[in-house]
Design goal:
Number of helices of chain A: 11
Distance between the termini of chain B: 20 Å
Number of domains of chain A: 4
Number of strands of chain B: 0
Shape of chain A: elongated
Number of strands of chain A: 25
Order of helices and strands of chain B: HHHHHHHHHHH
Strand content of chain A: 25-35%
Shape of chain B: flat
Helix content of chain A: 25-40%
Radius of gyration of chain A: 37 Å
Structural class of chain A: alpha+beta
Oligomer: heterodimer
Number of domains of chain B: 2
Helix content of chain B: 55-70%
Largest sheet of chain A: 7 strands, antiparallel
Radius of gyration of chain B: 23 Å
Number of helices of chain B: 11
Amino acid sequence: MTGSRMDTRPDESDVNQPVLGFVGTGRWAWRQLTSMRTALFLLLLLAIGAVPGSIWPQRNIDAGRVADYLASHRSAGPWLDRLGFFDVYSSPWFAAIYLLLFVSLMGCVVPRSKIHWRAMREQPPRAPGKLERLPEHGQIEVDGAPEDVLQVARDVLRRRHRRVRADGLSLSAESGYLRETGNLVFHVALIVVIAAVAIGHLFGWRGDRILVTGKSFSNTISGYDTFDPGPWVDTAGLSPFTVAVDRLDVTFEEHAGGAQRGAPRDFTAYTRTQASPDAPEIRQTLKVNSPLVFGGASVFLLGNGYAPVITVRDAAGQVLLHEATPFLPQDANYRSVGAVKVSAASPRQLGFFGFFLPSEYLDKNAGPSSFFPDLKNPALALGVYEGELYPQGRPQSVYTLSTEKMTQLKNAKGEPLRLLLKPGQTIALPGGRGSITFDAVQRWAGLSIRYDPGKILALAGAVAALAGLIASLMIRRRRIFVRVRPQGRRTVVSMGGIAKGEDPRLGAIIEDLLGTIAERTGTRARRTDTKAERTGTTV
Amino acid sequence: MTNETLAQYANLGVYSAMVVFTLAMVAFAMDLAGAAPRLSAVAPDIEVQPALVGGGPSVSGTAARIPVEGPDLPRRRKAAGVAMMLTRLGGLLLIAAAAMRGLSVHRPPLGNMFEFALVGCMFVIVVFVAFSLRRDLRWLGLFVVGPVLLTLGLAITVFYTDASELLPSLRSVWLVIHVSVATFSVALFTIAFSVTILHLVKTWLEAQEPEGMSRVRTVVNTALPPARSLDRTAYGIHAVAFPLWTFTLIAGAIWAEQAWGHYWNWDPKEVWTFVIWVIYAAYLHARATTGWSARSANYLALVGYAAILVNYMVVNVFFVGQHSYSGM
């Protein structure tokens, strides 16, 4: 069956080869894994494996879209889920690819480092017998005795070559060790980057908090809406900083038309911060692209929205609820959803659920909508429910109402009651249930707080990888050999060169070196042969 | 505030550049078509050693089909000269268009797909013109100006976005660093892609018997440099573009850390930048591996360029992510 194989190397699957023992099989597997072919195959597999994560929604980025996808693809969805297509980058098969790749990489880097270490300390090999047989060759005749010329050649070679070996009337020099050094640095640095990512996962944490203007929050787990620590994070030892947002300025595109209209243009949060309870209070502005920094943790401004200030009173005029309630934007024009839960209402608890619209208009199909993200015509459109807000005390989102134990209030015609409130407006609820007032609109800032102890290491690794990569691609490993022989009173200098891989500049370098030697010996260069010219190395 | 008049002048610059590039393309094509070897009419002028060919009356019949080329008969390449001049002019028009577009919105013109395409085309032409000062690249002209013209056409029609200010997350010095280097390396990958395709064509032609070749094939075969040299050029450009792409990736990660709080979050654009990086890394490894021919490695480079096209045209428009700045 070997006839169809493309390579001519001995077939490793030959039937009559000796039976491998456990160690032998292990060694064989190791050699397979660390071969360049396998590395290439794994690289391509990594590229292919990464693609599904850009096509299907990912849980770590947007769990809501994954849920939507599963709801609308009832047959394919669960299978994709089982295969890890919604958590590609934490799926076992993706991990298997990159772990194998890194084992393969280690298996390549370690022995090559050893070889390179030895090569850097070794003398270059002796000059071969016939220099003119090398890929590039040049020859000149200069004044002076062979020994003197050899000394000059040696000095000339020394300037650009790490090692020069003298051997009778010939020299060998080698340059470009940095190529392999760069290559090894690149691969080791990639391992450092992976290690840094792992450190970030284990010791890093992130938390999110929606903060209405005028309020403050402190960096404790209870201060967050969501908190996502790495497995080895000491959650009791978070640094005790506080952030208060006094004002949030938001600008949207008003002038351009088309898709650009209403696009956000600027977000600026004016904050007061304290690094610890005893530290002085500092006023800082927080913008997108310029986070607040507390030690290792950074506070980012990643979201914004509206929090209408709502007051609910009972029939006697007693205030049951008065607060700014954050609503979550659903589209580019900030049509936002939210819920107001009045647990103090009696005899039955009251819940309001609906939309906040910064620029309200009535769409024929979609109902109350917004035509612009800024406050041009703010309004609240709410439905009213009564009953039990928290059935069995189960945890629930603050932005939605759990209506399973509640009933919707109806108007006189028997249709569901809908309230449309403008700022300052009060509407009395039917049946003596009190009233609701829309006092004012505030903004909220979506703060995301991240701590990643691995990021500096990741950056250092990435920069080292880039430096190593440039060295390994731009530097050429070359060997230059020189031989001198007397020709009457003068000396013939013969020089040959060979490079690892293709090297279009080798011929020019030999000419350059020969020219320098001629100059140093005080001779006008007289070339007797230059292979570079004969073969023509120009592209 | 945007300056609408300046933005319109920028578009005018793009249209003018397209006209100039169209003319340049025609001139380049005429030059390549002129690369046909002189046939029988010229053959008697050349010393054909009868002993080498076989002697006797059969000489004329064979000699008529032997392509004659090289320094003996330098081809007058007026069309190529005109084409190069036009390409330089088109390049200047693109630079002016990009500058006016930038001035009209008071920022670097790197904010949406139209601007990426415009600046990318500008880089391609600038690199080509700069490179052609050192080497004879007249054979490549058609295959650089052609794709540029196509891209500009797409940019001004399909990808066109009104001049406007940027989203807050794009307002950063990293926009200039990250996006300009990304665009520049894509420009280099584009030229390398053209050269790689030409290498495959030339390799295919070199494997054929010169006698049996059709006229078109003979013309193409004569016009292109040897396959080995094409291959070396393509590799050289890739070797410069890949570190630049690596830099793009790192700079993007630094910026992402500042703007979104995480340096890597597997956003679709990040995924594809990574995929492109991995494919070209595989290409460079394949080049360094004995047992892989230059040709199969070059197929990897083509796959890499396909991924670049996906990254630009599919990911920007259709995939949901944080890089959705296409303006469409």
